Amino acid sequence: MASNRMPSKYVRKTNTAGWTEETLQKALEAIDSGRKIREVSRSFNIHEATLRARRRTNNRFGPSRIFNVDETGISTVQKPAKQLGPKGVKQFGSKISWERGKNVTAICAMSASGSFVPPLLIFPRKRMSPTLAKHGPVDGIYAVTDNGWSNEKCFLQWLEHFKFHVNSNLENPVLLLLDNHYSHISLPIYNYCKGNGIVMLSIPPHTSHRLQPLDTSFFGPFKGAFNKECDLFLKTGKQEKITFADLAEIFNNAYVKIATMEKAISGFNSTGIYPFNPDKFTKEDFEAASQYLPTICDDLDSTNEVDSAPSTSSLLTSVPSTSGLATSVSSTSGLSTSVPSTSGLSISHQSRIKGKSRLSVLPKEKVTIAELSPLPSYSGKGKTKKK
């Protein structure tokens, strides 16, 4: 009787897995260099589905395909730099543009390999004007909103600009690190990233100061350079005030000085993103912050433990109080003075408890409004009757 069981030793009849692991790695490197998956599949004789699956499992994002994007604000009123002044003078004037400036948002992005994407500047205006882009960053883009803040529409515009510069697609995706700002979350943004090979990875809340490369290495030096450029612009005497038409040029002068490969690589290295370092932060970095407050209130029973200090005299001076409240002040000399108080508390200062000076605050049970601020009474004098 013939058996329907499969033989114990199965012999593959096709040449599907005729490649080695070394050949597979070379094929994946060829895809990372920019070649299409279908072309690489035919060249290395590896199935196209196998290449796509290995790319998903390996998470092959090189340093040139890892980016970080974030927003920052600049103003038409700079923060004056520290200056030298005469000895003994605590304050002296410094020239600024306006009393109160207007905010302009800049969206910047950089990669782990040291490259930068041209920024987007958002002005608080109703209509866009060509004068706003005068002498601005090369290949930079501009937008306007009512308040100068970023929104979903502006960020989608930046994503299209980002996709054009990094050349991302489904076969050659990029990893984009960003925070949880409301302008980053919308259905059109999700659909656009999904269809153009942009993998968005959000940073956990309240950790951007340690996990965001732009915050750790770029925005700080950039703000300092921007303030210096504003001071230099005002000292040259070009104009008395910095307007929106001058802001793009000042921004570009500071941007080209700080947007260096060293800053970008240092930011990703300091956060442990690339090269990947899971031990970058210790247990102390995850501990909750502790708050220490001075002890100003003691228990009511602690007043019974007050030691009697040696005194040379026991004098008591009484001063009448209009509020009915009194503050008792005791000293080492034994002098106790009762003075008026409007706080409604009986406070004993410098009481010696077990050899230590402590402050005891004893709340009063009930305080009326008349005791705090007594109303004047009418005496009926000083008026004459009309005839």
TrEMBL record:
Principal location: nucleus
InterPro entries for this protein: CenT-Element_Derived, DDE_SF_endonuclease_dom, Homeodomain-like_sf, RNaseH_sf
SUPFAM superfamilies assigned to the protein according to its UniProt record, in alphabetical order: Homeodomain-like
Gene from which this protein is expressed: LOC115890410
Location in the cell: Nucleus
UniProt domain DDE-1: residue ranges: 104-229
GO cellular component, one term: nucleus
Compositionally biased intervals (Low complexity): 308-323, 328-346
Listed Gene3D superfamilies: Ribonuclease H-like superfamily/Ribonuclease H
Top-level taxon in the UniProt lineage: Eukaryota
Region annotated Disordered, chain positions: 304-323, 328-350
Pfam family, one: DDE_1
Recorded GO MF terms: DNA binding
Record's protein name: Tigger transposable element-derived protein 6-like
